[in-house]
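Milestone 3.1: sequence recovery, worked example.
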């Protein structure tokens, strides 16, 4: 369930993912501080409500310990996301209730609506899922990856117009839901989007991995698939320049519940030059961590990534538990994986958190999400400071953007 900015060579060597881009709103008390200092937008979804509503909060406290109020936040019907280019002062708010994108522009400490565009003409009905479904190439060109219609919508954020699309018919599998990754990688003029599938009904994952590679200059798409893995939604760049693709926590939770009926969570290697998976490289995540339920790959320091391992002494798996509950619940320990030697060691300094992780860039830090029990809250933690907690919001927050 894990914004993409162009990765510089320095960022590549740091092994950082370029993630999709994010959120906005008008808030209240949280905006006290430097009038010209950093300002952030966080969108949070109160999934326990009926109907479901989301709220866009503007705050200057993303790097501080604080609890954000929903007072004066922008309320959006449905599961909403905010996407955009960091520090641009513009936020594009979408919802799974419609195919309409609403642009908000920062006016002082508030966001004001300044335009809309609909993707309905291309058959799109919903704009939910993850922030990474929206990828911004420039101020005048962006992509929206739509799993329901197996296509990429090309649109102009400045003019608020649809300019084309990229069909991805080869990704459509009968009786399976196509789900694009919560993270994407940008390098060398390419946008790499991992892909996973799950059955339309019931619990399970499809034994198939995929990566869509798009040439951002020509909009030409290349599709690579692999039958040795499933629900590959995570990626990290190795010091060898290859992209390591891994099964997300949801796929690991399915394996925990279904045993060998589900594909084993694994690590694959993708070559961005050939745009293909390495046929000679395959490791199960279980073997890398010495056994247990393992999933998710979070980019770490140069040449490393973090794997999440479920600790059932903290979070026992009860009969009848849904795998989504396991994946988003607490009890996942952090292990640091060397992508050079493929050795993994427990990272005891990190607190156990939820299995699904999304990365956000604030002014000075890389932040990751920790979802509270019962989808009641989200706390952002500092990746480079052993998970030091910062701001907390009500509900589940999948969107974050630095507005200025």
């Amino acid at each position: 369930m894990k914004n993409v900015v162009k990765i510089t060579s320095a960022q590549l060597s740091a092994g950082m993912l370029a993630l999709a881009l994010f959120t906005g709103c008008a808030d209240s008390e949280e905006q006290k501080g430097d009038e010209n200092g950093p300002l952030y937008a966080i969108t949070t979804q109160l999934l326990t409500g009926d109907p479901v509503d989301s709220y866009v909060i503007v705050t200057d406290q993303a790097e501080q310990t604080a609890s954000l109020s929903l007072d004066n936040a922008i309320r959006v019907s449905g599961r909403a996301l905010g996407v955009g280019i960091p520090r641009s002062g513009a936020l594009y708010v979408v919802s799974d209730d419609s195919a309409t994108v609403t642009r908000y522009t920062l006016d002082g400490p508030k966001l004001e609506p300044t335009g809309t565009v609909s993707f309905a003409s291309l058959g799109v009905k919903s704009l939910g899922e993850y922030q990474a479904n929206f990828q911004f190439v420039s101020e005048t060109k962006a992509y929206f990856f739509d799993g329901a219609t197996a296509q990429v919508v090309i649109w102009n954020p400045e003019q608020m117009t649809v300019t084309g699309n990229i069909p991805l018919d080869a990704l459509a599998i009968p009786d399976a839901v196509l789900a694009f990754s919560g993270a994407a990688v940008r390098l060398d003029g390419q946008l790499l989007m991992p892909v996973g599938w799950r059955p339309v009904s019931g619990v399970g994952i499809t034994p198939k991995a995929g990566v869509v590679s798009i040439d951002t200059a020509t909009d030409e798409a290349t599709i690579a698939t692999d039958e040795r893995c499933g629900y590959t939604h995570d990626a990290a760049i190795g010091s060898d320049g290859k992209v390591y693709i891994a099964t997300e926590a949801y796929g690991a939770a399915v394996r925990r519940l279904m045993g060998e009926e589900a594909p084993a969570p694994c690590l694959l290697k993708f070559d961005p030059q050939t745009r293909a998976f390495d046929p000679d490289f395959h490791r199960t995540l279980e073997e890398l961590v010495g056994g247990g339920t393992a999933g998710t790959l979070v980019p770490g320091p140069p040449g490393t990534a973090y794997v999440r391992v479920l600790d059932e002494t903290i979070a026992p798996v009860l009969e009848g538990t849904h795998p989504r509950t396991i994946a988003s619940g607490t009890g996942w320990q952090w292990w640091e994986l060397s992508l050079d030697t493929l050795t993994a060691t427990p990272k005891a300094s990190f607190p156990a958190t939820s299995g699904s992780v999304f990365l956000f860039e604030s002014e000075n830090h890389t932040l990751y999400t920790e979802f509270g029990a019962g989808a009641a809250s989200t706390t952002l933690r500092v990746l480079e400071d052993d998970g030091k907690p910062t701001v907390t919001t009500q509900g589940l927050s999948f969107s974050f953007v630095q507005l200025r």
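The CA atoms of residues 104 and 113 lie 4 Å apart. The chain has four helices and 31 strands.
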